[in-house]
């Protein structure tokens, strides 16, 4: 090998290493805000109040304390709120699957954009404007004090998400198979049920995740329509910010506890989400 | 399930602890009297045993004291209590939405009298307490209504003479100061508004991050700071007789200028975005000379797990202003919705919540100042107070010069919002007179309409 | 060969598919019809909860047109929305390009990256608020320890909106990333190979191949972000309450004040109607752009 070739090979190597390093740096930069905030929350939740307010800040809890988490469990009816949140989010997502997936299919097949807009109006309307009339409506129906009002209002969050994602999904599915099924004498429903639906699984997973995230994290409905026994977790956490007392540690602990269920869920199925999106989940519509 | 039991245990424990601490001495006569009343048939606490009531409280030390002892009420009366404490802002809005629907979900609620008194009064959402108080079948003989202070009863009584809440707590504003910092500069607590400025100036050393002053500046939350100063000029924000705004008077403008000077020159940067908790956090770090706010914020400052200045906090009464000396006061009451179907049981709860026993406990916790004269004169109660004696002295002296810190009108929140924006702009450097002028013009029609 | 059948299906059977949407339509209507009728009705009245109601026709709308607070809030809303759409789109697209490459620990990094999206906005906003404390917050500590001047964050009129946008960007960039990543993954590989043979550089390949391919996805992300940013409430309400003064008061925060702090239901209803029209108009413009991006 002659000299110039070697130098060019070296510089090629150097460029490769440099670009790898730059890429690694880019990954670090985009991941760090998420991880730093989460770690800081964790740090706050494991320190006592004096350390939490210290300046310069104390980063590593020493020794770590679980007192904040104990305080959260003692001071609020957290288990009940957890069950409420599970019921509301689970129920609203389930109903959204039942009605939203067929709706997305029907609208995609019929190109019924006006129908789609009617459903999307629910998502576009500011949630605050629902609160007073809905409270009055639920009062007339005698539902206040139960979980129904919160469950029903969460449908306004979950159904549009499902419809929107599924329209895009079904539009991107090739129509050949269902048409073959129709020619073989299937009804429209059978073609949907046995041909289109099984293919739509990745899309359903995506819609489900999004609807769980948005429903779980909703604050306004639970805060205003919920009562003592019917609050959802985010509204209950906001109540943790006690008046006339600074409580950063318990607050961070509560914040972590609320986020934890969705977080764990996501970590387990994040491959599915990306898979669903890759299959064309959020395309078109 | 396990949680509730744990909670009960904790309550049980804290009750025993309280009994041991000497509060039991006070509790005993009341409970014994009840017991004898039951047997002799004079007063029966258990007439409504078996009912259950819903109680909606504003989150804070008052609610904490009531909820910690709720089980005693159930033992006494046989009435089950479901209570919830909700942060101030949310609580006010939930309560109004529920009243509006005609069928609120609660049988007892606390009302921030300085904000909602006229609103609930005008809409007649709450029961008049007077007939209930007069009913010897419903009011225990040892309730001792005359024990309530005149100030408390004035807060609870509407313009038309109805008393639709029982007074629970009065919160006077005062000045917390850092005794260590004052001593280091050889300063005494200021006696006048001018001396506050002088002390703040001497205490401020921006290079080392030390500031002489801190107060709230956030819109809405900042209005009580301004009115605290305004009262020193002997001006109320609204003339209660003519319902005219007095926010363009020289005193009101001077108060805004004074507020501006303190916050711009001697307070840490960013106070226009501070509410009480940011101010409290700053003060508790030991690098702030003075902090003006309600006296109910004291307990965390004396708690070594939360504060770096335990034992160093001075409690100063609002100093003499150019024209007058007043402490701005704010108050809470407890009432019963007209729509409640369990009025009597709810009334028993209100009675219990404002009884001598509970008022004494509130005072001893340091979380508020009850409206009963006996709480402050009973030596056993005083001996059980956890906070320094100086705090109690400040509380009593402040109460003696108390004057309402917010106007008694329907749109209090709008008042706080509109003038709060003007004050934030002023603190940001704008001209006080121009800002107050703008706010006054914006608010005048709102006031005229609401009080028509 | 299926084309004629598909066309026939589209023509003849299209309407037959509509019943699939009826249950969803019925449920949605059940929830939103009454609030909408109520809102339209109330917007023609002056009504403060606790006081009598009075019919005023269009007076609320006329008052809105001359309400400086409302007009100012439109400006804040648009500025906030612009920033919290453009920045997440830029960062999210960049992150999607990175995550589309294969590298060690990719799955883990991707999972970490999407964490913020899962976090409950109210809870996280409270934590951010602690971090923003101008004297005691951890962010100013970090800034000063690397030699930068401290910021006043949400406590200054000049920095409050960028501060809120920062939280919004942190929260919602992952959603944009996921949507764009879906687009990238579905993109064909042939154009790249031929471009590489033609000697195109990385930027040219991005500009002339990747970007057009993912454009529909980017526009979809823009539509979703725009609707959500216009309606943003939790973050602003918790961190700045619209302040200092009115510096971060968006339409939604002003609506909250009028409805839930002042109880002016009539006036608040008029705000809802105007706000809704504004959102619809912006969404329409964006959807139109989307159709265009599809055709091109």
Quickly describe the structure.
Chain B contains 20 helices and 11 strands. Chain B has 452 residues and is an alpha/beta fold.
**What form of chain A results from the Cα inertia axes?**
flat
Strand order, main sheet of chain C: write it out: 1-2
SS-derived structural category of chain C: mainly alpha
Query: Which homologous superfamily in CATH is the superfamily of the largest domain in chain A?
Result: MetI-like
Count of all domains of chain C: 1
Q: How would you characterize this protein structure?
A:
Chain A is mostly helical and 285 residues long. Chain A folds into two domains: 3-45; 69-278, MetI-like (MetI-like fold), CATH 1.10.3720.10. Chain A is built from 13 helices and no strands. Chain A has helices spanning 3-45, 49-52, 67-75, 78-110, 113-124, 128-141, 148-172, 176-183, 188-199, 201-216, 220-225, 233-240, 248-278. With 452 residues, chain B is an alpha/beta fold. Chain B has two domains: 2-171 and 330-400, Periplasmic binding protein-like II (D-Maltodextrin-Binding Protein, domain 2), CATH 3.40.190.10; 173-329 and 405-451, D-Maltodextrin-Binding Protein, domain 2 (3-Layer(aba) Sandwich). Helix content of chain B is 50%, strand content 14%. Mean pLDDT of chain B is 89; it is low at 1-40. Chain C has 296 residues and is mostly helical. In chain C, strand 1 and strand 2 (54-55) form a beta hairpin. Chain C has one domain (59-295): MetI-like (MetI-like fold), CATH 1.10.3720.10. In chain C, 49% of the residues are buried. The longest helix of chain C is centred in the N-terminal third of the chain and has 33 residues, at 68-100. Chains in contact: A-B, A-C, B-C. At the A-C interface, helix 1, helix 4, helix 5, helix 6 and helix 7 of A face helix 1, helix 2, helix 4, helix 5 and helix 6 of C.
Helices, strands, pairings?
The complex is a heterotrimer of chains A (about 280), B (about 450) and C (about 300).
Chain A: H1 3-45, H2 49-52, H3 67-75, H4 78-110, H5 113-124, H6 128-141, H7 148-172, H8 176-183, H9 188-199, H10 201-216, H11 220-225, H12 233-240, H13 248-278
Chain B: H1 2-40, E1 52-58, H2 61-68, H3 70-77, E2 80-86, H4 88-100, E3 108-112, H5 113-123, H6 129-134, H7 150-156, E4 166-178, H8 179-184, H9 193-203, E5 211-214, H10 223-232, E6 238-239, E7 244-245, H11 250-266, H12 276-283, E8 288-294, H13 298-301, E9 313-316, E10 327-335, H14 343-353, H15 356-365, H16 373-377, H17 379-383, H18 389-400, E11 402-404, H19 412-427, H20 432-451
Parallel strand pairs in B: 1-2, 1-3, 5-8, 10-11
Antiparallel strand pairs in B: 3-10, 4-8, 4-9, 4-10, 6-7
Chain C: H1 3-13, H2 22-42, E1 45-46, E2 54-55, H3 59-65, H4 68-100, H5 106-113, H6 115-118, H7 121-132, H8 138-145, H9 160-186, H10 190-197, H11 202-230, H12 234-239, H13 251-261, H14 265-295
Antiparallel strand pairs in C: 1-2
